[in-house]
C-alpha cells in the first residue's frame, strides 16, 4: 500500500466510522429516552450521508485553501465560519430531502425560526468537532514526522562528531605511546610519569574539541608540544623538533586540534617512514589580517591526491573544517620544498 | 629457541625483551631496527622465531618476510593494524598488540611449534615442511611447501597452487628451483615445477613428453627434454 492509499484508507475509515458513531449515539440516546421510533432510522440515514458529503466538501475546501499551513487562530476562525455555513446548508438540504422523499414525516421546511436555529447550530457543532478531529490528526502526524526528522538529524550530528573524535584520537599513536611508556617505567620512571601527564593532556583536549569552536594558539601549542614530546620518547633521536613561534600569535584564536592533526601527519607520514628519522618544524607568524601556521617535515610528498591514503583523509578533513569555519577566507596548501613537505594554513585574524 | 626482535623503536624492543626474560625457552639472539638489518641478522644468526613489527620505515614487515626463504615462525607485534593483519587468509600466524599483555604473549609462544632437532630451519635447501611467505596484492599467506601442488611461471611472476589458493607472487622460477628439495620438487618444463608427492597419474603425451595428473585435479605437461630425467627420478 502506498502512502497515498494509506492516507485515503485512514480518512474514509475515520469518516464512515465517525459519522456512524454519531448516528449510534443518537439512536442510543433516543432509545434510553424512550423516544426511539422506526421513522428515525430514515432520518438518520439522511443525516449520515449528508454529514459525510458535507464534511468531505469541507475537507476539499481545507485542502484547496491550504489551511494546514495556517496558524491555530486563523484556522479556528475559518473553521467556525465554514461550520456555520455548512450547518445552514446541511439543514436546508435535509429539510428539502425530508419533505420531498418522506411525505409521511413531519415537514421541515415550514418549522418555526427558533427551531431552525437550533437545528443549524446542531449541524454546525458537528462540523466544528469534525474539524477538530481533522486538524488534531494532521498536527499529530506532522509532529511525529518532525520528531523523526529531528532524531535523524541529531544522530547524524552525533555520528560526525564521533568520527571526528576517532580521527583525532589516532589509536596507532596512543597504543605506541603506551607501549613506550611501559618500557620507560623501568628505564626512566621520572620521564615515564611526565609522559603519562602529557598523554592525559592530549586525550583531554581531543575529548573537549567537539565542544569548542576555537582556542588560543598558546593552548593548541601546548597540546602539540605534549604530542611531539611523546613521539620523541618513541622515536628518540630519529625525531628532531624545531619551533618558530612569533609571541604575537599566541593569543590568536585557532580551531582546536588542527595544528595537532598536521603535526601528527608530519610524524606519521614523514618521520615514521624515514629509517634515519628527520625534522618536524612548527611555525606560527602573524600576517596582514591572517595568522599563518606552518608544519614542515623531512620527506617527500608522494601523490598528494593518493586515494585511500590517510594523509588525504586528514588533509581533506582539515580543509573541510576550515571551509565550515571561515568559508573562503582560510587556505591550506601542501608542497615539497628543499627536502621537506610543507603544509601552510592561513586563518583570518580573530583576536580574543 | 632463538628469537630475533625486529622493531624500529628501541623502547618497544626493550619492552619485549623484558617480557621475554621470564620465558627461558626463548633466547633473544638479536635486535634489528629495520628490515635491512633484520635480513642480515636472519642470515647470520638463523633465528627460529621472529618478533616482527609490521610498520617500519623502509621495507615493512611483510616485505622483509618476502625476502626470507624459508620464512621463520613469526609473531607479529603491532600497535593497531587491524588492516594489515586482515591481509592474512590463513590462520598460520599469531600476533600480539602493543602494549603487550604477558598472558597473550605466552599464548602466542605456546603456538610456536617446538623445534626438536638441534638444527634450525634456516638452511640453503628448502624442506617440504618449511613455510614460505606469499603476498599477492593485499593478501598474505604462510604456505607450507608440502601443500604446494605446483608452481607455474607467468612472466616475471609465479603462481603458487596450494589448498584452494593460487596467489601470484613476484619471484623467479629458476631461483626457486635451485632452493627446492630435488627429491620433492621437479621442474617439468620451463613453465612448471611440480610437487612429486601430489602426483596421481602419469600418461604418455605427444612428442615423447608426459602428462602428469595431480591429486588436486590439475594436469601438468612434462617437456620431452625433462621426461627422461623424470622417468629416471621415479625409477630410483
Describe this structure in words.
The complex is a heterodimer of chains A (352) and B (236). Chain A is built from 9 helices and 7 strands, in the order H-H-H-H-H-H-E-H-E-E-H-E-E-H-E-E. With 352 residues, chain A is an alpha+beta fold. Chain A folds into 2 domains: 3-165, no CATH class; 171-348, Histidine kinase-like ATPase, C-terminal domain (Heat Shock Protein 90), CATH 3.30.565.10. In chain A, the strands form 2 sheets. A 5-stranded mixed beta sheet of chain A has the order 2-4-5-7-6, with helices on one face. A two-stranded antiparallel ribbon of chain A has the order 1-3. Chain A is rod-shaped, with a radius of gyration of 38 Å. By secondary structure, chain B is an alpha/beta fold. Chain B has 2 domains: 2-111, Response regulator (Rossmann fold, 3-Layer(aba) Sandwich), CATH 3.40.50.2300; 140-235, OB fold (Dihydrolipoamide Acetyltransferase, E2P) (Beta Barrel), CATH 2.40.50.1020. The radius of gyration of chain B is 20 Å and the shape is elongated. Chain A binds chain B through residues 171-172, 175-176, 178-180, 182-184, 186-187, 233-236, 272-275, and chain B through 8-12, 14-15, 18, 33-34, 55, 57-58, 79-81, 97-100.
Give me the number of helical elements of chain B.
Answer: 7
As a whole number of angstroms, the C-alpha radius of gyration of chain A is: 38 Å
Mean pLDDT of chain B: 87
- Write the CATH architecture name of the largest domain in chain B: 3-Layer(aba) Sandwich
Defining key terms:
heterodimer, A: about 350 residues, alpha+beta, Heat Shock Protein 90, 5-stranded mixed sheet, two-stranded antiparallel sheet, 7 strands, B: about 240 residues, alpha/beta, Rossmann fold, OB fold (Dihydrolipoamide Acetyltransferase, E2P), 5-stranded antiparallel sheet, 7 helices, 15 strands, elongated
